[in-house]
Amino acid sequence: MKGLAIVPCFWVFWSLNGLFVAFNMTLTNGHAPTYLVYISETGSFFPESVLFTVVFSVSSVLGACTVYIMYRFMTLRSTDNQTQQLLCQRILLAIGLTSCCGTGTVAMFQVITHPYIHGAGAAVAFGFGAIYNIVQSIKLYQTSFSSRRVCHVRMALSVLMVIALIIFVACKIPLLMGWCGGDQCIKICDVSAIITEWLAVVAFMVHYLTYYTDFQHLCTQHSSQYEERKKKVTFMECTET
């Protein structure tokens, strides 16, 4: 594994494994009646609530690092006269970091104690995350070191996440507003919302595994500035030795 490829891989591994461990703990401790559990419910009770907070807190930091490294990668691959491209990447950086802040909010405020704050954080994390993934997938068609097939997979995962989120919202709103007229309607909407929520999260995370090829070409280097007499970390494209 070369360059900074470890960052998105570790982020995905950490987040998905932590989430599924919390899911198993929820079922083992009898805090959920069935296997159909909302993601937020995997962190509603102790002790899985502690794991939920730790997993998503660390995930928000790893996500912010991944988004920033991708920003540096895209700026290195752009020329100085591509002002529109540079501006777009700055906007995407802000969107990606906002999504990570939403993830941190989800981690710190549980759905049982702070349902509205938790819901707002989830909306920001998913909503801004979907925008970031879609736009960045389009931009990476031009600058990515990945093959065309990998670019297509990256875009397909982004589209899948958006579709899953749309279905989730369409099923969740009738439940929240009390529009379902019978138990059958409630069951269908509830099951559909749970499945699409998990599908959206998995698609969202696996999307970042496709950054592996690009991050292999990016390294950090400690450079010393004589005038300021201090050291800083700079990003550069890796060179073969």
Summarize the structure.
By secondary structure, this protein is mainly α. It has helices at 6-28, 48-76, 83-108, 115-143, 148-177, 183-207, 212-215, and strands at 218-225, 230-237.
Structure characteristics:
241 residues; mainly alpha; two-stranded antiparallel sheet; 7 helices; 69% helix; globular
Describe this structure in words.
The protein is mostly helical and 241 residues long. 69% of the residues lie in helices and 7% in strands. The protein has helices spanning 6-28, 48-76, 83-108, 115-143, 148-177, 183-207, 212-215, and strands at residues 218-225, 230-237. α2 packs antiparallel against α3 (83-108). Residues 222-233 have low confidence and may be disordered.
Distance between the termini: 15 Å
Helix content: 55-70%
Tell me the number of helical segments per DSSP (H or I, 4 or more residues long).
7
Strand sequence of the main sheet, in spatial order?
A: 1-2
Mean pLDDT: 86
Q: Gyration radius, to the nearest Å? A: 20 Å
Percent of residues in beta strands?
Answer: 5-15%
Strand-and-helix sequence, N→C?
Answer: HHHHHHHEE
Biggest sheet statistics: 2 strands, antiparallel
Shape: globular
Estimated structural class: mainly alpha
Low-confidence stretches: 222-233
DSSP, total strands: 2
Question: Which helices and strands occur, and which strands form pairs?
Answer:
Elements: H1 6-28, H2 48-76, H3 83-108, H4 115-143, H5 148-177, H6 183-207, H7 212-215, E1 218-225, E2 230-237
Antiparallel strand pairs: 1-2
Helix pairs in contact: 1-2, 2-3, 3-4, 4-5, 4-6, 5-6
